[in-house]
Amino acid sequence: MDQIDAIWEILQYAIKKRKEEGSSQWQDGYPNPEVVQKDIENGYGFVLLNQKDIIGYCSIMINNEPAYAEIKGEWLTNDDFIVYHRVAVSEKYLGKGFSKVMLQSIENFALDNNIYSLKADTNFDNAPMLALFEKNGYKYCGEVFFRGSSRKAFEKVLEKK
Fold first, then answer.
1. Does the predicted TM-score (pTM) go above 0.85?
2. Vertex 28, ends 39 and 107: CA angle to 5°?
């Protein structure tokens, strides 16, 4: 809870960056500090650290995304899955590969929990996240809907160890 202000600062920068890039994602008052607080209270909020400095933030959940039940398309698997949202990297760490480190950490979290599916979504106009999915082996599965608009949905199936 004592990191909410630092996390919110990272998310505010990401919100501003989305707007500067012409994206409509995160331009409607979401996410906000209350969402981050609920993430943390529910045990979903995770930070990537460099010693005590927060590099990035995301929310990670197991089998907990009701919107994914109504996909316009088809998921690759129907087993347990990790879903993650609100991926953001601190301004001072951008362009240094930490988004990929965050995705690798999410994969490790999944494997540690014997889960072999990662599911995520993003706006159609979020070019950096779309590129990150492509570079990291995610497959496009269709569209899901949040707060009245559609998002591109992706899944990555992990190999069992």
1. yes
2. 40
